[in-house]
Write a structure and sequence with these properties.
Layout: H1 3-23, H2 33-46, H3 54-71, H4 76-79, H5 89-106, H6 112-118, H7 128-137, H8 153-171, H9 177-189
Helix pairs in contact: 1-2, 1-5, 2-3, 3-5
């Protein structure tokens, strides 16, 4: 392998490693999961260069989340108040959403043309505080999940619809979901 190809490959591995750490999700998964997750993310993020529609992006997103739910378990520490060992769809989605945000939005990968098309497709990476805010703002929507580890696929879809609604109501459609999670995370975790 020539040095330039090697540098590009290592750059992607480093971006994925940073994204996994940035999501803070590996602490809730059992030991040894990080490498398996990194390999899957490398595969699925590598597919983003060929995305030509929102449906194809949603398919990749869903496939990754379903893979993680079937193959990764929560850590013993995270299981103390849980009945199931499987990772939740919400945890899987948060991990993918943060990784995709770092990859596409922060690092401008895979390339400029793909980046421009992908940016509006990215989902908001929700955390527990953002979920609480959405439940308070839209109490009639009956979101039952209290934490990201309680979120199944149907609640995940409902939460993303609430993100879109919140963007319409409070941000006048001037931002994308990827901007929303940056703004809301900062407002809720780093208030002035």
């Amino acid at each position: 392998m020539n040095p330039q190809d090697e540098a590009s490959l290592i750059k992607i591995k480093c971006v994925i490693d940073m994204a996994i750490d940035f999501s803070a999700m590996t602490r809730v998964f059992e030991k040894g999961s990080k490498q398996k997750i990194a390999e899957k993310l490398e595969h699925y993020l590598g597919l983003l260069a060929d995305i030509d529609s929102k449906d194809n992006f949603e398919k990749i997103h869903s496939e990754f989340c379903e893979w993680l739910v079937k193959n990764i378990c929560s850590s013993k520490k995270d299981l103390e108040n849980k009945n199931s060992q499987a990772a939740s769809y919400g945890q899987a989605a948060k991990l993918f959403n943060v990784a995709a945000k770092v990859y596409v939005y922060y690092c401008h990968l895979p390339d400029c043309e793909s980046n421009a098309m992908l940016l509006p497709m990215l989902h908001a990476a929700l955390d527990n505080l953002m979920m609480k805010k959405l439940r308070e703002k839209y109490p009639k929507e009956n979101i039952k999940a209290q934490t990201i580890s309680d979120v199944d696929k149907s609640e995940y879809v409902a939460l993303q619809k609430l993100v879109t609604r919140h963007i319409e109501d409070d941000f006048k459609n001037m931002i994308l979901p990827v901007h929303y999670d940056d703004i809301m995370w900062h407002r809720l975790n780093r208030p002035s």
